[in-house]
Amino acid sequence: MKKYLQVFTLFFAVSCSPEKTVTLPYYDTADFTPKWEMPAGKPFHQIRPFSLVNQKNEAFTEQDLDGKISVVDFFFTTCPGICPRMTSSMGDIQKEFSNDDNVQLLSHSVTPEADSAGVLQRYADDHNVNFKRWKLLTGNKEEIYELGRKYYFVEEDEGFKKDNNVFLHTENFVLVDPQRHLRGIYNGLDPNSMQDLIRDIKILEKE
Asked: Alpha carbon of 147 to those of 68, 99, 112, 141: distances in Å?
């Protein structure tokens, strides 16, 4: 519902100010209340430093987010429910931006104790994951869960209140700009929401 309100707000801003360049809001709270400007001279929410590994067992840190537009989700390789559809949606995003080095896709395993780098690589092979464009990440469970809930806000308000003993499972995709700021949240199971995401990535590239 929040995403649809965001889309309406964006449409309203565009229709009322046709002479202005379209921009995306910023988000710094788990309820995804849009902010159209960052406060001058004050720290603003961004993805904190972290250390994970990708499917090739290479280090992946917050520095790999810098300078890139990132689409982020959370999944696990043995998930029989929403994850296959989320992977399919990520595959569509990968195809759309296959030749665009400004865009990267990041899928974090929420069962890192089972999803080693080797397991993620086999999953990548089975799902046509292009390593250049799409990284599958694993590492310390507490770090992954804290990133998901308290920095990406991937479960929105509900997730922010949970601890790491509660399983993290959500269909949400999050859009992150090259400065590690949150710029949108989308339903990975909804084709219309995925079209919104594609549109917003292209808007972000023009900033």
From this structure: 18, 28, 14, 10
